[in-house]
Fold this protein.
Amino acid sequence: MKLPENGTPWPQLKAEMSERGAGDAKWRDGKTAVYVFNAGPEVEQVQKEAFTAFMSENGLGPLAFPSLAQMEKDVISMALDILHGPEGATGAMTSGGTDSITMALKTARDHARSKGQSGQANIVLPQSAHLAFDKAAHLMDIEVRRVPLKTDGSFEADPDAMAGRLDSNTVMMVGSAPNFPHGIIDPIAALSDVALEKGVWLHVDACVGGFLAPFARMNGVPVPAFDFELPGVQSMSADLHKYGYAAKGASTVLFRSDDLYRHMPFEFAGWSGAPMKTPTLAGTRPGGAISAAWAVMNHLGIEGYRRLQGKVCAAREEVEAGLRARGFEILGQPLLGLIAFRHPELHSFAVYGELYKRGWFTSVTKEPRSLHLMLSPKHAEMIDAYLRDLDAACEAVRASAGEAKESVQPRYN
């Protein structure tokens, strides 16, 4: 495509864009359980109107746009409040989980350097930790030490095994709340104990659970300690555009103290332009992502989040019961909105393919091969439909396997 010689009227472009999107996942109908977090049309309207109200403003310029600077401070303060941030805790908004994780690792590395670390830096994390840590480590030439999970079928990180991989050049160890592949909250309390004993920075990746787990706990879900209430936790990542129901891209990276946070911003004056200081990787920071997060959080409040997260957990419990009744194995003991499961007789990826044919856009997990759902409030209405289509998908896979078996039987004249 080349830039057109003459401009095209907006109505024509709008129609073409609508046509192009016709083949995209239909997330508003509730048959998408990954990428989008559907809290309903009311929240969607707040997202859009708040985003567009500040979409041209730039968070890079707090002096020019003090409104955005204050909204970001408010968002961080609210996040720290629900995540037991101690006095003096602080943080910043980023563009997403990968951005938050990258900045947390950069901060931990620079903090370690300030304390005398000089060798090849390394990071120790469970096998289930998000690949964003590997991406960040690649950018900063940090060695990644992935450690196998517990062998008890819990799909949890193994604190003892992780402790054995720490050394004087470890700049960070990681726990997830929950991990993405299996939806399991790692034993963060035990990791905190290891971190305190070894003097190592512990980061909790709560990109998925940071704005879900606190409200699930308020609703009676037995969520274990996972945040700053544990003294070994030095930093956290928590996405607003996941279970915070904010517009993309909005995440938070949070630190126990300003002394830790001060290693994150980049400040430079040695060029021809004006001195500049940026808190995160980005220069220009879209104002709409900040304003939409602020608006959604204030619109929902504790009551709204409790209500929506109650729907998420109820949907997970309902689908879990339905899966067990059909002979599926649930991986570990999920407590929040993610669930991974497999059938002892059916290939998970084949079942996924049949569900996809029936309009479901979900996900899979590789280790072990399993199906994967990341549920939203909308899915509380969709579990019966999902299970019906799952039944049909399983029957189709069984039939296909039977046909394949029949086709390889010896033939005699």
Notes: The chain has twelve helices and 13 strands. The first helix runs from residue 10 to 20. The chain has a mean pLDDT of 94.
